[in-house]
Amino acid sequence: MIIPEHERSAEPLIGEKVIKHPDMVKAVEWVLTEYEPPKREICIFVPCSKAKPYHESPSHKMFDSIIFRHLTHDQVHVVVFGTCGVTPRELDTEYPFMDYQFMLGRCDIPKVKREFHKLESQRLARYLELTKQHYRHRIAYCLGDFRLAMEKAVELSQVKVDIVPKPGTMEKLHNPDLKFSFGSLYHQEYQSDFDEAICRAVGLDTSNDTVTDIQASNVQTTNVQVTDDSDWYIK
Length: 235
Known about the structure:
Blueprint: H1 22-33, E1 40-47, H2 58-70, E2 76-82, E3 85-88, H3 110-130, E4 135-141, H4 144-157, E5 162-164, H5 167-173, H6 188-202, H7 216-221, H8 223-230
Parallel strand pairs: 1-2, 1-4, 4-5
Antiparallel strand pairs: 2-3
Helix pairs in contact: 2-6, 3-4
């Protein structure tokens, strides 16, 4: 237990105050100072989800369908980031990572966005610096505000992270008529970039369209859940 019940704040974990909520700050600081990350071949950073725990959400099941096509659990460490700060996914059933309600993508308050970018980029940079010797490769699959924070963290820490989707793929799929103009991480071309990044990291052949055999039925049967899970970036 990261924060014992008797030490928890009475302040609700709802809305834009979640980013600086005392328990969220305390939990992320615990990750950055007391948690001992495992040593793995690859660390993969993925965004937090509306549905919790993260590992049971539709978006994370999609991420996992790509990650574990090529990697075993002993090869990879999955770390969640975003509104939750920096959360090793094996901790996603812990308070407060399981208990907050806020979607940054739905927030149009510039001050909140600025605070998030500054705070999250610093947190990510600290994690990257602390884990320099823990992973041989790092991949981040992200768009929007989370991607901006990761890019800044890489600049601050000078630790290499392969951030996907590729900029060229994003430009190709850019649609200014959408609420979130770059669409969703569910897009197959984005998934292909993610798959290829993993293949490159482990030295596998990337010449084939390795992501095409992800069952289309899986996407079709989770359409409603997908909207619920990631509606902050779907029109």
